[in-house]
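Risk register update: the risk of archive-format incompatibility is retired. Evidence:
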Amino acid sequence: MFAWKPVLNQSGPTEFVFRVFTTVPEFQALLFLLFLLLYLMILCGNTAIIGVVCTHSSLRTPMYFFLSNLSLLEICYTTVVVPLMLSNILGAQKPIPLAGCGAQMFFFVTLGSTDCFLLAVMAYDRYVAICHPLHYTVLMTHKLCVQMVAGALGLALLLSLQLTALIFTLRFCGRRREINHFLCDVPPVLRLACADIRVHQAVLYVVGVLVLTVPFLLICVSYVFITSAILRIRGAEGRRRAFSTCSSHLSVVLLQYGCCALVYLRPQSSSSEGEDRHIALVYTFVTPLLNPLIYTLRNKDVKGALKKVLSTKGTSEAL
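Archived output:
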C-alpha cells in the first residue's frame, strides 16, 4: 500500500497553473457564460431528480434510489471541477497549490470512479427486476441497496487514495508548471513529472481497467440476460416498456464509459493533451447534463412526478 509522501524537494514546484482556453477577452466571456449556464443546468436538473425521488413515495424503489444517488454524484463531481475552472477562464492564470491539485485529483477520481461503479450496480438492479421479477422485492432490499452504494464509494476511495498518493510522490520540475488541462487530472499531471513514470502509467492503466473495463463487462453480461428475458415477453407493450427503461441506462453507460476509456485506457503515445482536454469536457459537462434529461424524458414515472410538483407549485402560487 502506498503511503502519502508529498514532494518536499525545494527544486520542485510549489504550485501549478492551468492552460487558458483563449486569451481573447470576448471569447473568454463567452466561454464563461456558456460553462456557467451548463453548470447551473446540471445543478438544477440533478437537484430536481433528487427532490422528486425523495418527495414521492411511488418513486421510493431501488431503481430511483440509485438514480438519486447518481444525481448527487453528478452534482459533487462537477462542483469539484467547474467553479475553479470558471475562476480561471476570466483574467490571468490563477495558480493552484500542490496540495490543492492533489485534493482536486483525489475527489475527481473518487467521484468519477463511484459513478462508474454505480452504473454497474444499476445494471444489476435492472437484471434482477426483469429476469427475476417475482423475487425482486426480496432480493433488492433497502439494506442491500445502501450497502452496494457504500461499497461502490468505498472501493473508489481506496483506489483513488492509492493512485493520488503514488502520483504525488513524483518529483516535478520548475517552480511553476503549466497543466494543459482545466483540472488536475492524472494524465496531464503525469506529463509534468521529471522522473520515469512507467510504473505510474501501469498503475493508472490497472486502475482504469478496474474502474472502467470490469464494470462495463459486468454491465454487458447483465444486458445479455436482460435482452434474452425481454425477448421472451409475449406482449409487445411489455417488451417496449422494458426496453425503454433499459435504454435510458444504456445510453448513459455508453457515453460515460466511452469517453473515459478514450482518456484513461488509450496508450499515451497515441493521445494528445488537447484531445484529452476536449474529451474531458464531455464527461464533465455533457454526461452530468444528459443524465437527468435522459431519465426524465424516457421515464413516465419521473415525468409524472415532475408534472405533479410543477402543477402543485403553480396552484399554490395562484392561491
